[in-house]
Design goal:
390 residues, alpha/beta, Rossmann fold, 2 domains, seven-stranded parallel β-sheet, six-stranded parallel β-sheet, 17 helices
């Protein structure tokens, strides 16, 4: 069987899909992965056949800011709908023009795409493959209007008036533990257990990690997109390094760890560390509440302090706060003292660890990628049988 994956060219969109990719590879299926040219080498390095389609994330961002120079100054409630339509939409149209012809030639049986990568939906519909939409974060309230917004621009440009409804009718893969979702599970959903990520074949942790002086460890990251928000980074680090805890910081791409200056002995700064290796050694997380970091932390029952910047991050942070597994600090609250106090609270108040532990248990009970893949293949077989019977 041939399975085509399609994702926006960003780690936060690709990494959550890798467990299903690995399950398909283990089962002996032919796998291809469509994404922007900026991520192709990384996928190839991981042994995943990658197709370069459409623009890079940077090119899509530049096009958005050329059309809407004040985009970053807009309130969040205005910025997100505009991004859904004018950031992801035009890139999906460009990507579809390469992806659809190539998919026709390759003829996949199943097409799996992330919600923002509408080109995958267009390809699935065009070739009549089983259509699967892979969630990236907890299902937000009112998911239907958001999906229709994502589909709006490609539907208009490519004369596909039913595209939004076709995306909603696709099989949905939900990687969020049930207790974190504000919505009941959709009738066409399958659960898929999230993971903390791949170790990527790297050394588990640097030798300096073993030399850190304290019993408890806090992980600080702003991911790979909003990590250049130095104000939030500087305030968080200033609040953490004075605590009697180890602080492990990953700056992400484009940020030189040396730029953070000299640090005390309890602080370890690296541009990248494999999350799957680091999180088991941590006691709490301070992050932007990106879905990959948030769900990865919950795989290990870690309470979290959230500094959401945009996209789905405010919704993720609100979900954690609602169930008592985290504390959210808004844009006007991110002082060093506020971060320090929030971290002390999630470390010392056992209710936060208990709430995170409950979600950890829910995650452990969710179907593995291998089990969910089996369910997808069985569902496809049943649908084919019904078509032939009819």
């Amino acid at each position: 069987m041939r399975i085509l994956f399609s994702a926006w060219p960003a780690w936060g969109h690709i990494l959550p899909m890798l467990p299903l990719v690995r399950a398909a590879q283990r089962a002996g299926h032919d796998v291809a992965f469509s994404t922007g040219p900026d991520m192709v080498d990384e996928l190839d390095r991981r042994g995943i056949a990658a197709w370069a389609t459409g623009p890079t994330a940077a090119e899509a961002g530049a096009a958005l800011h050329e059309a809407y120079p004040d985009h970053d100054q807009l309130p969040v409630e205005q910025r997100m709908p505009l991004s859904l339509v004018r950031f992801f939409g035009p890139a999906s149209v460009i990507r579809a023009k390469t992806l659809v012809p190539r998919a026709r030639l390759w003829s996949p049986d199943i097409v799996v795409h992330d919600p923002s990568e509408v080109a995958g939906a267009i390809a699935a519909v065009a070739i009549g493959a089983m259509h699967v939409m892979h969630g990236l974060s907890p299902t937000p309230p009112g998911i239907e209007p958001l999906v229709r917004l994502l589909a709006a621009y490609p539907a208009q440009q490519l004369d596909l008036p039913e595209l939004g409804e076709q995306m909603l009718a696709a099989t949905q893969l939900d990687i969020s533990p049930p207790g974190l979702s504000a919505n009941p599970t959709l009738s066409n959903s399958l659960l898929l257990r999230p993971t903390a990520g791949e170790n990527d074949g790297a050394a588990p942790l640097p030798g300096e990690f073993e030399k850190l002086p304290h019993r408890r460890t806090v992980y600080l990251t702003l991911g790979t997109i909003v990590n250049t928000s130095s104000g939030a980074f500087d305030a968080a680090l200033a609040g953490l390094r004075e605590l009697p805890v180890n602080v492990v910081v990953t700056t992400g791409p484009g940020v030189d760890p040396a730029g953070l200056g000299a640090q005390p002995a309890n602080v370890l700064v690296r541009q990248f560390l494999p999350q799957a290796a680091l999180l088991p050694a941590c006691d709490a997380i301070v992050s932007h509440a990106g879905a990959g970091t948030m769900l990865g932390g919950l795989c290990h029952g870690l309470p979290q302090v959230c500094l959401p910047m945009g996209a789905d991050q405010p919704m993720n942070a609100a979900s954690l706060a609602r169930v008592g597994a985290g504390i959210t600090l808004g844009p006007g609250e991110r002082t060093a003292a506020a971060v320090r106090d929030a971290v002390i609270k999630v470390l010392d108040d056992p209710s936060y660890r208990r709430a995170a532990g409950t979600l950890q248990q829910e995650i452990a009970a969710m179907p593995s990628a291998d089990e969910t893949l089996d369910s997808l293949i069985e569902l496809r077989s049943r649908r084919i049988a019904l078509v032939h019977a009819g």
